[in-house]
Design brief:
The protein is built from 65 helices and 40 strands. The radius of gyration is 58 Å and the shape is elongated. 44% of the residues are buried. The model has no long low-confidence stretch (mean pLDDT 89).
Length: 1620
């Protein structure tokens, strides 16, 4: 660094010299070059870098000019000025002092000292010394650096060393101040010259004085005095002034008068100030010096040195004696002891050594002992000036006092008065840790005041000693040194030096005892800042320390609400303690304001304990914003807890918190009302959050009452008095509500009352494992009792609330299932969930549970949108939501229902709760099952399907495969096989998704021409099906992918992948052709609309969002703002088929509009039901295997392996439901106009039962139905899908309420529900399945409705007044008799082999057989009262089944020719359509097969052979034209329910007559008579009646119409035949 500085200076000086050279002649420049080359040589480069060369040159030349005025040996040349460019030729921002003087000691030090004394800052100091040669006129002719030497001594002749001083100080623009500064510096320079010039003289006088002392009579004092003077002369004293003074009388005392001509140095006569007095009176205390034997005395002068050092001058007085030996005066020597005087040992300084030796001797300590050494150490460290000045007695007392103090750390004061009364020397000892500037200033102030000081000087000493020593010298005016009681002064000093920390130490020891108190003192003693110590007494800090320690232990806040004694009634203070970081006002102020207080001030204090984390104490000054007062003792804990909970995020920061003070509610009690308020907003309250808060907080008594009501209803500790106390509270609340003047507030408060009364369970009183309240609330509600709840109302509802998450779970029944969705609709997520639950109800008709749906919102997602952090928060919120659900759900233990602990139930047992994945929670099932296991929930990992031990829907592709059944069905209706023929597709989604990705791999003939998701748009106008399939397959296998990963080389010409962020996308001709558009470029949203409207075979939705609405719907009604820009109308769609793998892709009205236009579409609930179906199978299988594991027949590991083995079969069971459900819709769609009347009656019936709201479900009104009937139109498939679901739900409930699930007839159906490995192996466990009844009811409802239609059971119920369960029972009997199940499967197998319409007609024919057989069994069972007689039913089935088996092959021989011809015609038509002969025969003979039941019954009752009975039956049928009568009966219009009942009654009577007439014919027949003979005999016996009957039939044939009256006439006439 030094080398670099020297190098920089050298370059700078070279530049400076060159700069100057051009401004002078060569001769004149010679001395200047030498001057300039050395002027800046010793200056630091940093001081020069900011200066220009011109200014450096100007400053040096200005000094050169000053030097020209200097006269060597005379007064210094001095210039003090402010350089200005125009005036001085250079510029500086500072005031400049220029001095040229003969070189001598002390110049720079003394001038610097004077500058500092004037309070000015020295910015730059340049002080080179030159050897100067001047001519006779004083001009400089030669100049060299002062340190330069030449080999020739003569070369220095005529030269002198001169000191050049250039100072730059704070700029001073005041001329008077400049003049004063100039005068002061000139005086100092004069003092320096005088001192330096008279140095030899003063040395000589001193030596003379030594000789004089030596000549005196020898004594110990004289010798010591002489030795001291010799020590001084030996370079231990810097002589600055010397003078003799004569001792003269002055009144009663003495005075000193200067002796003229004796002065030297600064005491020269000419240096004396004009106003200085001639006489100096001696104080009385100084008079004692006169009588002392010591010839010398030492003290301090009362003036500071102006030369060398700024301290007070050391004063050495030597007594002068006359020839007679009397004292005649003093010789005064002024100067400064050199540094060695302060560093040498006391044993080396005369006088001092004698004093110290005497003190040690007087102390009498053992030589080399501890006390001896300690005393010597005290003396060595004693202020050296004091050793010079103090007398032996004073030194002894003080030294011993200090020695004794070494053992005790306490404050002591030792005072020595100057005998001339010019100052007081004070030694103050304080504990070292106490010492600081503030303490020193307080001590100095106290001592200065006590002694009337005019100035105070201090010298601290901090050593290894535990005590700090402060040497304070109090300067006083001469003669005004007061007498002071030093003992009292020391007490005052002790008090003054007592630190706040000392009070803290006492308080800590008092509060915590010695051990803990000392620990805390060590930690916190010096940790509190000065501001805190000024504001609070130490006892307050003790409490603060307690709370800081508590905050540190808990790693949270500590608080203290208090009211100072002088505070007004509504004013109080609040301290908050936090370790680590401070509390931001931006966060704390809103929290306090929401608590109902105004913050008037805040005082923050940083407490920094050594080696520990800092702590902050925030002291808030608060004032109530309300006029009411409160008792701080009652609300202190409530307020502190509320603030802490809000800070920790356990309680929300809103105006509800005002209830803490207003209603004196705890923060968690306030959360009850807040949770209900959030719920009310979700169920459609029109009031804002802020208004609800004002309404509740504005009525604190009512708020308190509502909370008390809640607590009384649900506190487990209330016990038997619950009902009475609840009633009392309700009466009080009602009375208070009547007094609320504001109608809106009244309405809001009544809503709160309503939902509290509708609450049936809560987890409020449950605790976690540590016994702490749960950080969330859940309420189970009875929706039917919630006022103003929007339709449809679920059966059960659970609301979960916390500051982090809000969620709702809606169930349509006791056994219900559905997914839990991570919703992004914070304001109305319940509306979203309600819509999904409604759809789930429809979807779940294929499974055991009815529909449910849950949804939650993450209220505080991580800032910045970090995906992983957001996911973690979502999982945590999901887990909280699940805990809230399970907290209020019953459990099953050992076959018994166990209520949740600490939950008061106001409803019945309710143990069934299952959940599933949904949007945002696809991978969360394991988290859910882990929580279920924590709770010991009976469903265990069946609680949430699809976990790591379960069926992975994406791997199975089950949802997409289910949707693909709908696709195949739609195309089959058009005579198109998607698995063998190429077809065009546009889609919503990408290959990373489950539904879209799997769906686009379900046929190798898919031509995916366009697709989009939220990131990209994919266009492939002419794809190769196989190539594109392989590429999609590759992408699907990637861990993560987007359309951007699609290989561009595999995309056809004109296609590509485009980001949705693009401003515009160019459209190639190929794309324009395939999308049916003309635009050459489109914005991304416009292109997406074009994709949705593309004229393709299939629009496949596998994404998220609603993209199609009805024309009459607004975007706002759809409720999916994110897709408003791309949404289209159903009437605009040009695709032939729409498949909904994803939920809510179309609105229901959008579907209907598309279907009415001719499009083929079901609903999302139909298309994507396979997912929920698979989940339900998983749950029920796990429940079954759970029983097996519990029985010890299987380990959990074996269970898991078996689950995996059954994956494919479970998939097939699920897809079977999808297949049959879409088949039912397809068949009904072909007969829509004919079915409309029956469907309308079903809708009306469901409405009457309160099970259906047509408006909500967008089903046609009666007026709409009338219009459709007039137009020969029926329901659309989307409408029928809804009705299909509602019919199943109705039938399910009916079956569940019946005893049919226990009937032996349906036992095999329970086995059929499970995969084959479970059917026989675990049949016994299946019988104990907790959901056995629900499984059977679901299976029965689905099997029947899917095969015979949604109106079937209702129609038969209308005709027979039978219970639905009985109708289903009869259908099962029909199934078993005619092997209907096997028949259906054989027809199913004709897919893509026969035309779809042929297949549909075959199903209709079989359904007619089921209907006729069921009606027959119903009537038989009703007549025989065998409804639930298992043995009688089994016998009847066996009898009928035998008859069907025996008669079916013999029908050609048994049937009359006309009926046989008709049968052959139907059979041949089916065979020609591609149906195999056997199946064709069975289906074609369906109408005839129903007659087998009558034949079997008659054969049994008449004890006749089946074949004989059959022959007679068919012969009479031909005779009486049964076929015509049945045809006319079926064609009868049934405009009213009564018409239907009348027709049913007539047909029932007709059926009875057929059997009766056959039995009568057989009864009167001869034994072994043939069929023809029996028929002929019967005909002969009734010839007249038969003739009349034949005439009636002929007339009815001729009429061409059919009426109920005509049918009744024919039945009556047949009855006549019976009586004959």
């Amino acid at each position: 660094m030094q080398a670099n500085n020297e190098e920089a200076i050298a370059h700078l000086l070279a530049d400076l010299v060159e700069y100057a050279r051009g401004r002078w002649s060569p001769d004149a420049f010679v001395p200047l070059e030498s001057f300039l080359s050395f002027y800046y040589e010793l200056v630091d480069t940093q001081d020069l870098q900011s200066r220009s060369i011109a200014d450096l040159y100007g400053a040096a030349m200005a000094h050169w000019q000053t030097a020209q005025r200097f006269v060597p040996g005379g007064v210094a040349a001095l210039r003090v000025y402010n350089p200005v460019l125009d005036e001085h030729g250079w510029h500086s921002d500072h005031t400049v002092i220029e001095i040229v003087n003969d070189d001598m000691p002390f110049l720079v030090d003394s001038v610097t000292m004077e500058v500092n004394r004037c309070g000015l800052t020295l910015h730059s100091a340049i002080h080179p010394v030159y050897r100067v040669w001047r001519d006779a006129q004083g001009a400089i002719v030669r100049i060299e650096p002062g340190g330069a030497t030449s080999g020739d001594e003569a070369s220095t002749n005529g030269s002198r060393l001169e000191s050049f001083i250039h100072f730059e100080i704070d700029r001073c623009g005041d001329a008077a101040k400049l003049a004063q500064l100039r005068s002061s510096i000139a005086r100092v320079l004069g003092d320096v010259r005088a001192a330096v010039e008279d140095w030899p003289k003063m040395q000589a006088v001193a030596k003379e004085t030594i000789k004089a002392l030596a000549a005196r009579e020898r004594s110990e004092e004289t010798e010591e005095a002489r030795a001291f003077l010799e020590w001084m002369v030996a370079d231990h004293f810097t002589f600055l002034g010397l003078r003799d003074y004569a001792l003269v009388a002055h009144g009663d005392d003495f005075a000193l008068r200067g002796v003229s001509g004796t002065g030297a140095g600064i005491l020269r006569d000419e240096q004396k100030l004009a106003d200085a007095p001639d006489l100096t009176p001696l104080p009385k205390a100084a008079g004692a010096i006169i009588g002392e034997t010591m010839p010398i005395f030492l003290t301090k002068a009362n003036s500071r040195a102006t030369v060398h050092r700024p301290g007070y001058l050391d004063y050495v007085g030597v007594k002068l004696f006359g020839p007679d030996g009397k004292l005649i005066g003093e010789r005064r020597m002024l100067g400064l002891y050199t540094s060695t005087a302060y560093t040498d040992s006391i044993n080396e300084i005369p006088i001092v050594r004698r004093k110290c030796a005497n003190v040690v001797r007087r102390a009498g300590f053992l030589a080399k002992g501890h006390l001896h050494k300690s005393l010597v150490s005290v003396l060595e460290q004693y202020p050296r000036d004091e050793l010079f000045q103090t007398n032996e007695d004073e030194l002894y007392d003080i030294a011993l006092g200090i020695l004794r103090l070494q053992e005790h750390q306490r404050t002591r004061l030792f005072v020595r008065r100057d005998r001339f009364e010019r100052f007081v020397s004070c030694l103050v000892f304080v504990a070292r840790e106490k010492y600081n500037t503030d303490l020193r200033q307080r001590i100095a102030k106290l001592l200065g005041g006590a002694f009337n000081g005019t100035g105070v000087e201090f010298t601290p000493l901090l050593s290894e000693s535990p005590l700090a020593r402060i040497h304070i010298v109090v300067r006083t005016s001469s003669g005004v040194l007061p007498e002071v009681d030093t003992t009292e002064l020391e007490k005052r000093l002790v008090q003054a030096t007592r630190r706040w920390q000392d009070d803290l130490a006492d308080a800590l020891l008092e509060r915590f005892g010695e051990e803990e108190g000392n620990r805390l003192l060590q930690r916190y003693g010096d940790s509190f800042p000065a501001g805190y110590r000024e504001d609070y007494v130490a006892r307050t800090a003790v409490r603060d320390i307690e709370l800081i320690e508590a905050a540190q232990r808990s790693e949270s806040l500590s608080m203290n609400l208090y009211r100072p004694i002088e505070a007004a009634p509504r004013v109080f203070r609040f301290k908050v303690y936090r370790v680590g970081q401070s509390i931001a006002l931006s966060r704390s102020l809103p929290m306090l304001e929401h608590l109902g207080v105004r913050v008037d001030e805040e005082r923050p204090y940083l407490i920094e304990p050594p080696g520990g984390a800092p702590a902050w104490v925030h002291d808030f000054g608060l004032e109530l914003t309300d006029s009411a007062e409160f008792d701080i003792e009652r609300v202190k804990a409530l307020f502190e807890e509320a603030f802490a909970r809000v800070w920790a995020g356990e309680v929300e920061n809103d105006d509800f918190n005002r209830l803490v003070l207003r209603a004196q509610l705890a923060a968690r009690e306030v959360s009850i009302l807040r949770a209900y308020a959030k719920y009310l907003r979700q169920v459609g309250s029109t009031f804002s959050d802020a208004y609800i808060e004002r309404a509740v907080t504005g009525n604190p008594a009512l708020a308190r009452g509502l909370v008390d009501l809640f607590l009384t209803r649900f506190d487990p500790a209330v016990g038997a008095a619950r009902a009475e106390r609840t009633e009392q509270l309700l009466q009080g609340i009602q009375s208070a509500l009547d007094q609320v003047p504001n109608l809106d507030e009244d309405r809001i408060l009544r809503q709160f009352l309503g939902v509290i009364n509708a609450t049936v369970r809560t987890n409020y009183f449950r605790r976690d494992q540590a016994g702490a309240p749960l950080p969330y609330l859940s309420f189970k509600l009875d929706p039917s009792r919630v006022p103003g709840l929007p339709e449809p109302k679920p059966m059960f509802e659970i609301w979960v609330y916390s500051p982090r998450v809000e969620g709702v779970h809606l169930r349509g029944g006791r056994v219900a299932r559905g997914g839990l969705r991570w919703s992004d609709r914070r304001e109305d997520f319940r509306t979203e969930v309600l819509g999904l639950m409604k759809a789930q109800m429809v979807k779940n008709t294929v499974i055991v549970p009815v529909g449910s749906k849950g949804g939650f919102v993450v209220k505080n997602p991580p800032a910045g949108g970090d995906r992983e952090a957001t996911l973690r928060e979502g999982i945590a919120c999901y887990q909280t939501f699940l805990r809230g659900l399970l907290d209020v759900t019953d459990n099953r233990q050992g076959g018994a229902i166990t209520p949740p602990p600490d939950v008061v139930r106001h409803d019945s047992d309710d143990p069934y709760l299952v959940v599933a994945a949904d949007k945002g929670t696809a991978t969360f099932s394991d988290y859910a099952n882990a929580i279920a296991r924590q709770y010991g929930f009976w469903l265990d990992d069946a609680f949430a399907s699809g976990g790591s031990v379960g069926y992975d829907h994406k791997k199975m592709g089950i949802t997409a495969r289910g949707a693909w059944e709908s696709v195949k069905r739609h195309f089959r209706e058009m005579g198109f096989d998607t698995q063998t023929t190429d077809f065009s597709v546009v889609g919503v989604g990408d290959m990373s998704g489950d539904v879209f990705g799997n769906g686009m791999l379900l046929s190798r003939h898919i031509r995916l021409v366009a697709a989009f998701d939220h990131r990209h748009i994919f266009l492939d106008p002419d794809p190769d099906p196989e190539t594109s399939f392989v590429e999609r397959e590759r992408m699907f296998a990637l861990e993560r992918s987007s359309w951007a990963d699609y290989d561009p080389a595999k995309i056809s010409a004109g296609g590509g992948v485009f980001p949705r962020t693009a401003k515009a996308i160019s459209i190639s001709p190929a794309v324009r052709a395939v999308l049916g558009i003309d635009a050459a470029a489109l914005a991304p949203n416009e292109l997406i609309r074009a994709i949705l409207l593309a004229p393709v075979d299939l629009l496949y939705n596998g994404g998220i969002g609603t993209y199609v609405k009805a024309t009459r719907e607004t975007h706002a009604q759809v409720g999916d703002r994110a897709n408003d820009g791309v949404r289209v109308n159903g009437a605009q769609l040009r695709a032939k088929v729409v498949a909904e793998g994803g939920n809510l892709g179309l609105t229901q009205l959008g579907r209907i509009e598309f279907a009415q236009k001719g499009g083929r579409i079901n609903t999302d609930a139909i298309d994507n039901s396979a997912g929920v179906d698979c989940s339900d199978h998983e749950v029920n299988i796990k429940i079954l295997l759970g029983l097996v594991v519990a029985d010890g027949e299987m380990t959990e590991k074996q269970r898991n392996a078996l689950l995996a083995e059954m994956t494919d079969e479970v998939g097939q069971l699920v897809l079977r439901d999808n297949y049959e459900q879409t088949q039912a819709l397809s068949i009904a769609g072909r007969y829509a106009p004919q079915l409309l009347e029956a469907e309308a009656r079903l809708m009306r019936s469901l409405e009457r039962l309160g099970r259906l709201n047509r408006a909500i479900e967008f089903l046609p009104s009666d007026d709409d139905i009338a219009e459709r009937q007039a137009g020969a139109l029926g329901l659309t498939t989307p409408e029928r899908a809804v009705l299909l679901a509602y019919s199943k739900m109705w039938l399910y409930d009916e079956l569940l309420d019946s005893d049919l699930p226990e009937d032996a007839l349906v036992a095999d159906m329970l086995r059929d529900y499970f995969p084959k490995p479970l059917q026989t192996r675990f049949a016994d466990a299946a019988e104990r399945h907790p959901l056995k009844r629900e499984i059977l009811a679901t299976h029965l409802a689905n099997a029947l409705v899917n095969r015979v239609g949604c109106t079937f059971v209702h129609r038969l119920q209308e005709e027979t007044d039978a219970k639905p369960s009985d109708i289903v029972h009869a259908c099962i009997m029909a199934r078993d008799v005619f092997d209907i199940g096997e028949l259906w499967l054989r027809i199913d197998a004709l897919d893509n082999r026969v035309a779809d319409d042929v297949q549909a007609r075959m199903f209709v024919d079989v359904a007619r057989l089921v209907e006729r057989a069921a009606l027959w069994f119903l009537r038989q069972l009703q007549a025989a009262q065998l409804a639930r007689d298992s043995a009688g039913v089994a016998a009847l089935i066996a009898r009928c089944r035998e008859a069907a088996a025996r008669l079916a092959p013999r029908l050609p021989a048994l049937l009359p020719s006309a009926e046989l011809a008709a049968l052959d015609e139907r059979r041949r038509a089916l065979e020609q359509a591609g149906v195999d002969a056997d199946l064709a025969a069975r289906v074609a003979s369906g109408d005839i097969s129903a007659a087998v039941l009558d034949i079997a019954e008659v054969a049994s009752s008449a004890a006749q052979p089946l074949e004989l009975v059959a022959g007679v039956y068919f012969a009479l049928g031909t005779m009486l034209d049964y076929a015509f009568i049945s045809e006319r009966a079926s064609a009868l219009p049934t405009h009213t329910h009564w018409d239907m009942l009348a027709r049913a009654a007539a047909l029932a009577e007709l059926a009875r007559l057929k059997r009766t007439l056959t039995a009568s014919a057989l009864a009167h027949a001869p034994e072994r008579a043939s069929t023809d003979a029996i028929a002929a005999a019967w005909r002969e016996q009734r010839a007249p009646q038969l003739e009349r009957f034949a005439q009636l039939v002929t007339e009815q044939r001729a009429s061409g119409g059919a009426s109920l009256s005509m049918l009744l006439v024919l039945v009556r006439e047949m009855a006549v035949l019976e009586r004959r």
